[in-house]
Design a protein that fits this description.
heterotrimer; A alpha+beta (about 1000); B alpha+beta (about 190); C alpha+beta (about 110); B: about 190 residues; alpha+beta; Gyrase A, domain 2; Alpha-Beta Plaits; 2 domains; 5-stranded antiparallel sheet; C: about 110 residues; Folate-binding fold; 6 strands; about 15% helix; about 30% strand; SoxD (chain C); SoxD_sf (chain C)
Amino acid sequence: MSTRIAKQGRLIDRSRPVTFTFNGKPMKGFAGDTLASALLANDQVLVGRSFKYHRPRGIVASGAEEPNALVGLGVGARFEPNQRVTTTALFDGLCAVSQNHWPSLEFDIGAVNSALSRFLPAGFYYKTFIHPRAFWKYIYEPVIRQSAGLGKPPKEEDADRYEHFYAFADVLVIGGGVAGLMAAKTAAEAGARVLVLEQSRHWGGRTPVDGGEIDGMAAEDWIAAVVSSLKSMPNVTLRRRCMGAGVYDHGYALGYERLTDHRPGTEGPRHRLWRIRARQIITATGALERPLSFAGNDVPGVMLASAMRDYVVNYGVAPGQRVVVVTNNDDAYRTAITLKQAGVDVLRILDARPTGGGGLMEEARGLGLRVDCGRGVAKVSGGKRVAKLAICAQEGSGAALEEIACDAVAMSGGWSPVVHLWSHCGGKLDWDEAAAMFLPDVARPPVGADGAGFVQTAGAASGVLSLSEGLADATQAGRAAAKACGFKAKKGKLPEVTELGEMPIAPVWLMPASASDELRAKAWLDFQNDVKVSDVQLAAREGYESVEHTKRYTTLGMATDQGKLSNINGLAVLSEALGRAIPQVGTTTFRPPYTPISFGAMAGDARGALFQPVRHTPIQDWHGPHGAEFEPVGQWRRPYAYRRADESLDGAVMREVKNTRQAVGILDASTLGKILVKGPDAGRFLDMIYTNVMSSLAPGKCRYGLMCSENGFLIDDGVVARIDDQTFLCHTTTGGADHIHAHMEEWLQTEWWDWQVYTANVTEQFAQIAVVGPKARAVLERLGGMDVSKTALPFMTWADGSLAGIPVRVYRISFSGELSFEIGVKAGQGKALWDRLIAAGDEFAMMPYGTEALHIMRAEKGFIMIGDETDGTVIPQDLGLNWAISKKKEDFIGKRAQARSHMTDPTRWKLVGLETLDGSVLPDGAYAVAEGVNANGQRNTQGRVSSTYYSPTLGRGIAMGLVLHGPERMGEVLEFPGIDGKTYQARIVDPVVFDKEGEKQNV
Amino acid sequence: MSEPISALNGARFDGIARIAEAGLTGMITLRGDLASKPVKAAVAAVTGAKPPGQGQISFGKTGAAGWMSPDELMLFCPYAAAPALLAKAEAALGRAHALAVDVSDARAVFRVDGAAAREVMGKLFPIDFAPGAFEPGRLRRSRMGQIAAAVWMEQDGGFGVICFRSVAGYAFALLKEAATPGSAVGVY
Amino acid sequence: MLILHCPYCGVSAEETEFAPGGEAHIKRFGPGASDEEFRDYLFARENPKGVHFERWRHAYGCGKWFHAARCTVTLEVFGTYPAQTTEPPQAIRDAISAKRPGWSWREFE
């Protein structure tokens, strides 16, 4: 059984018991436990089910590489699926549930897949579910979806908060093991600003477990001394529980800090995403132990040898009572020795190497442990837990020599340096045949903005596994990083290390070497996704030669652990099957993040009210309480209409139009862009920006203008007011304010930089209020302060003055065809003026109106709207706006493009009005069909609807659209099939359907 | 005449830093040849300060001058005095090619003070706010969360932030969020 | 995510402060230009594997346009310079030559 033992447990506090539940069952642990160690202490060896075959799965590792032990953690708004128990700190009240089983972990229906595994080989889904196609939608997909996915998504909104932090360092050290600490110390002592990230809550990495003496101190004491000296340095920042998640271009790196996972509900953010810029990055990310590929290596109770050692030393937990150790290298002997010293029976050490190991083997033998060399595992048996193990010769096909009853197996297939972060941004790898591992190729590092390498590896991440070499390597890395940042590291003395020499590893990619078909079909590579040695071999036989293709075909390494344990073993099997050397097969691409990070951390503060900025006008707060229903216009929220009690939204719009046409309406037009253009060359510049002539505009006057892109397409429109000889104020559309300002600056900076023109975007300096309708003048006169008569302020002019004592600039411009005043006022007094106008308008039955009424009124007048009549492919000539295109000007932006053959093509669709025969409203975006069908069998088209509304003024639907030869076809009737199944008939008419002569606006 | 109001009317929040909307602040955008005499005279007329160097804000008797670009300054002054000071600036500019415009109402100004102010800024701007890297007199235009903003350090070590008025609500909520109690990073 | 040096602000800032603007040193053709000239001006663009000249705007900073000489393979930035020029300055060309001897891009080398 798996149980807590009296000895060891350096990380737990036995005086602080903790209670938690697993699948509802109460369990006990200690402060300092991980959920993994606590589960093992409670003899909970079975912790989950695999993805495809629903095989029983146990804890196999002790850290971030764990593929099996994923649970749903927390409840309600703090529930999170797929949490690794090995990296989850235990806390009082923790609540975990296992995943991927039904109805229960112990008895799972899906496990039938395992019995059928022979019929579910690699690529099974691809091969099987292709035909018949009709089955896909209703049968295959629902079934597959039902069985897809590991954990269950949370149902409630996340209760926690998250944030980002921008950090800067000369040297970022990822990994707080002895190598990371040594590198950090070296760089920091040279004067560099150093940031050290450690993913766990402990400094020192594996070294305290593996033992050894540094400078005459126990490793643990040396680590404490180094940490304490780093803490005292002002140029060093140390962070624990903060994983280096990814390394990106130009020294960008992400750190994933878990602040309150171990104490939920505590004040402050749960996770913090560190967005780091470092000049140099040292990845001291250690190495991961590889499993061995033998039959039954997935049975709960089979564990990495180093993990088993961690559980004993760090947590005082023995994952078994009768253990067999199987290895191809010396390191696993440390586990055997540790187990023996903790009082666990180590029944046998199976060393695949013909002559076994070195000093550690002798030490184990000295403790009375039996070592069999040249031996391996034929098969591990047991259902939900290891029961027995069959021993065989490594060089053979797996004939059992002996069977041992045992309850746990510690395996070691050697070590792979964690090269992930080195590789994220393009660092290349080399295969080291002797060490049987991929090493960072220091000649081909990731390069930064200056073209020089910016990542170094240190310690085991460099492939040096011994303590002495690791410390030397880390010192070198720290020195090199400091030097690259312009600091000079003093030549220090390397720490003195006492350690035993080790014998070389013998690569073992399959155990036994010539395992039978039956054994290979039970030898797991990817525990989470259920990929076996036989699957990879099948893929190779079927022609999947690229490792990237094999990965996707078999799903090897595609689980949430991203193949941390499986990739090297898998590609070694593939290399053997293809008969090509491992470096020729290569690795799959390492992509960030190193382990999954929370969506909350990625989003940071950008959720809820802060999801995106919402822009408010100075009058915004008035609208809501007065019934406004808002519509998004860019990042603004503009009132669509002001709904009254017992009124439909549509009814409100109709009322607003009628009231504005008959009496007076008021509109918050503050969102319109306002760009000041000033200088001796301002007129000349605007003549280039607009299609018509602006330089001839007299001060005090206004003129409507069109702007095109260099492609000739219409991009914006608006009224320009000339302020004085050198100054123009250009109004843009609501959406155009920022990009038209940028457009102007682009031309000024990059083409006509010798022209004397300055621009300023003054959009938000002013609130702008439109008072519109026959009684508009009366409302302004009621406020008093300036002459707004027809003679003093004629149509298309502006004047400065004051209304109700508030300084204003009034423009006589109209987008509705009505008598209209647009009043510009300083934003800080916008609300005050609005209130005065509302009060003064009362006796004239003035009502506020929203954007929909605005749209209807402009459509009645045949005025175009950027974004309705234009879509980035429409030129002014298409819209009958030739009157606003100067023929005199030699040049303007878009002029040459409008002369291109496609732009002058007489078959371009042109703007017309559309009037339904029955008075109904045409569907927005509907197409007018023509005779015949196109190559896809669709009806040919000859036009489309660009704007369509019900006009309360005319009592029928009105619309505009672009139609082939439209202006020449007045009176013709077109057919518009709607998506509602009806076909609408509409007559081509003049787009101006209200007050064509413009008498109403010019009073 | 109605009293003008700033975007958030002086809203405040106390967390790991103190966040305050500064209320009405006079601001004049001045574009021109920053090295020219008329521009220097205009800066002096409004703020009493010398034109700031690249990436700096200079402080004077009646205001401050922030460097916005190689041909643009933001002049800070008392709100009520802005129209008169603008007239003085225009007089100083004379016939020189320049643009001076009152933008006091176009922006919101915030103050961020307190021990953790550097960290609060560091959560929102992609800028190094470490002591030594960002000191009084430094001004940077950059990105705060998802909006454009300028940030500078006052002589007393507090931060000033300006953004457009329409996003003042977003900016304040963002600053509040970054200053939430319990969220100190513990690095500066 | 790149770091670019804004030649106006004198700061090196992360890419999120900038907006890309396509190829640099494109000569404008207006009315009077032939169809071929105008087509090339509007649409013909380099797509090099290696040295490239691009336009960037310090959108969240000073708002100014500048040019960057950059390697599209390694993302190395050879230098940035103000946009008020019709060709890469000699100092930039020298910086590229030091790293990529024999480089050429359009008519420049």
